[in-house]
Amino acid sequence: MNKILTKRLLPSLIATGLIGATFIPAKPASADRLLKDVVTGAGVGAVSGVVTKKGSTVDNAINGAVAGAAVNAANRNQKPSVVRDAAVGAAASTVSGIITRKRKRPVQDAVSGAITGVLINQTR
């Protein structure tokens, strides 16, 4: 049980803490868009994991949610850009994957994060 907590719960809590630091300066009016982006990212991450048959659904959803939150933060006071959103999503998902998966499959995380960024950009 202790190994499960150390391997699964602790990295997720670290990732959540990093996301929380991003959410604190969020304006109340932008909370709906933030929630939409996080949920969209979690969905894209979960689906990409099912399609590629790699990683757990929870880890993939966490990486997608982090990518969605990062894209939202990148677009807070700027005009959305497809290239920037894809780059930010890829970077955030890769970093989250390094934390949650101990450096396994960074390319898959980057591709999934980039897809998340583009999808969020297209839904705005």
Description:
The chain is mainly alpha-helical. It has one domain (2-122). It has helices spanning 2-23, 31-52, 57-74, 82-101, 106-122. The protein is globular and about 40 Å long. The N and C termini lie far apart (43 Å). The mean pLDDT is 78.
Rg over CA atoms? 14 Å
What class do helices, strands and sheet pairing give? Answer: mainly alpha
The number of distinct helices, counting runs of at least 4 residues, comes to 5
Roughly how much helix do the residues carry, as a percent range? over 70%
- Count of all domains: 1
Secondary structure: number of strands: 0
Overall pLDDT = 78
Task: Flag low-confidence runs.
Answer: none
Beta-strand percentage?
under 5%
Summarize the main sheet. none
From N to C, what is the helix and strand string? HHHHH
Shape verdict: globular
Q: What is the terminal-to-terminal distance? A: 43 Å
List the helices and strands and how they pair.
Elements lengths: L1 H22 L7 H22 L4 H18 L7 H20 L4 H17 L2
Helix pairs in contact: 1-3, 1-4, 2-3, 2-5, 3-4, 3-5, 4-5
Looking at this protein, list some descriptive labels:
0% strand, 80% helix, single chain, globular, mainly alpha, 124 residues
Quick structural summary:
The protein is mostly helical and 124 residues long. The protein is built from 5 helices and no strands.
